[in-house]
Amino acid sequence: MTNNRSFEQLDLKEKIGQLFMCGFNGFEPTEEIIGLIKEYGIGGIIYFRRNLRDAAQVAELSAKLQDASSDPLFIAIDQEGGMVVRLEEGVTVMPGAMAQGAAANAELTYEAARWSGSEMREIGINMNFAPCLDVNNNPHNPVIGVRSYGEDPKRVGELGLAAILGYGEGGISAVAKHFPGHGDTAVDSHHALPVVPHDIKRLNEVELLPFRQAIERRVDAIMTAHVVFPAFEPDDIPATLSERIINGLLRNELGFEGVIVTDCLEMNAIAETIGVARGAVEAIKAGADLILVSHRSDRQKAALEAVLEAVMTGEIAESRIEEAARRNWELKLARGLFQSGIPSTNRDKAEEVQRKLSEASVTVVKGEANLPLPRAGKTVVVWTEARVGTEVIEVIKQEWTLGAALAQAGYDIKEVRIGIQPKSDEIAAVRAATVGCKTVVFASYDAGFSAGQTELIRELTANESFAFVWVATRTPYDLLVAPEAPTYLCAYENKPAMMTALAGVLSGRLPVKAKQPVTIGNYPRVAAEE
């Protein structure tokens, strides 16, 4: 990369290219992505798990991509923490947002973002699509859930701001998402177009409050949601394509001056309605600065060409391209992408923060008097694991399970692994394993979306021949399928550090510190100051 060009040296096609961030398949740069960099001068790359093996490989990949470009690239990732991370090998995976919401410690949230950010910057990543400032107040939300700090707008704003400042200290551009708010939806915008029907008063008091705080502290970038907000946009246009929402609300009313990024236009809410290429044109017309097209090279080229044609025909003013491209360029300058220096990392401090946050976030919703787990007799752990990936569920082989952590704590453990949608033979294996045992610990994973898990949990809850302890390792709302369960804890994720902390609480080694961040049936959220 030669990085001594000025913005004024870019021609129109290159300025249009600066408005696009694209993805590709594989651990090495593909011919297609190199072509987009060299032919169109695209401004950024997004990484997914498909691109990332470990930290050393990512550093090499980042360097190759930057070397192919005439100008510095944004290199972005969804490294939210917890259950939504793209890279685990060679970096410190921090607890996710809802776990941090339960810990309710802004200083630890800041430190987590700072050290995680510096580790990313060290391997060439300079933008993180985090934090989620969505206020998750809908138990049936299939896409946000534990990616949110909780249901209290003030706690979401406080912790989100701490993360934004931490990422900045670590050399990373934070991208607050998903504006104006994806927390109160029951539809996943990867698959369809959600609607948030609330009036302006409610949206101002809840959904917009965390974003206002982030804007006041000059967050680098904000990502839009593919969600319809009739109170702001009466024509049923999703926020990503709405001039009223992007230019009117976000720019003019809220005063945001940073980079506006679209969520990926290949999500069905856009791709299966207006289409990716047309969506890119409409998003830029509405005021977006950085267009995300994450997957298919044919759609990426079509979108770039559609925008170029829209400028040539006068549908998009050249001044709009100039404004957006300059905004992206100036953020690259501000974040030091034209320079070689990066913040220092400290793996020991990062791992200490990871441990402290994990230990502070394990939440006992009910049945604390039934803890610690009795050590006498055999304890059966039912471990639910993801085996089929989705846009928000990643299939990861994990050896350090709750059973392993409890075994290390001195328990006589029999672990039975089942899928999120358990098969009949897996259910039979659980039934067989529990015969004659003293305690059953069920580690559920999105049980509310699984008839098989629900059936098993209800059956085990009703069995009085053993003590039953239930731990939710993703959504905290699992309790709603069997509210009569005697003991229920939330871990918000199944990552190794969290399983070690969870075993510490279950065994009595660790005290319970967490503040429940969401209401779960009859169990209300606990305010951070209580």
How does this structure look, described?
This protein is an alpha/beta fold and 530 residues long. Helix content is 38%, strand content 12%. It has 18 helices and 14 strands. The strands form two sheets. Strands 7-6-5-4-3-2-1-8 form an eight-stranded parallel sheet. Strands 9-14-13-12-10-11 form a six-stranded mixed sheet, sandwiched between helices. The model has no long low-confidence stretch (mean pLDDT 93).
Give a quick set of tags describing it.
530 residues, alpha/beta, eight-stranded parallel sheet, six-stranded mixed sheet, 38% helix, 12% strand
Please give the structural blueprint.
Layout: H1 12-17, E1 20-22, H2 31-40, E2 44-47, H3 55-68, E3 74-77, H4 97-103, H5 106-122, E4 127-128, H6 153-169, E5 173-179, H7 200-205, H8 209-216, E6 221-224, H9 243-253, E7 259-261, H10 268-271, H11 276-286, E8 291-293, H12 297-312, H13 318-334, H14 347-361, E9 363-366, E10 378-385, H15 402-408, E11 412-419, H16 424-434, E12 439-444, H17 451-462, E13 467-472, E14 488-490, H18 496-507
Parallel strand pairs: 1-2, 1-8, 2-3, 3-4, 4-5, 5-6, 6-7, 10-11, 10-12, 12-13, 13-14
Antiparallel strand pairs: 9-14
Helix pairs in contact: 2-12, 4-14, 5-6, 5-14, 6-8, 11-12, 14-18
Task: Describe the structure concisely for a colleague.
By secondary structure, this protein is α/β, with parallel strands linked by helices. The protein is built from 18 helices and 14 strands. The strands form two sheets. It has an eight-stranded parallel sheet. The chain has a six-stranded mixed sheet with strand order 9-14-13-12-10-11, with helices on both faces.
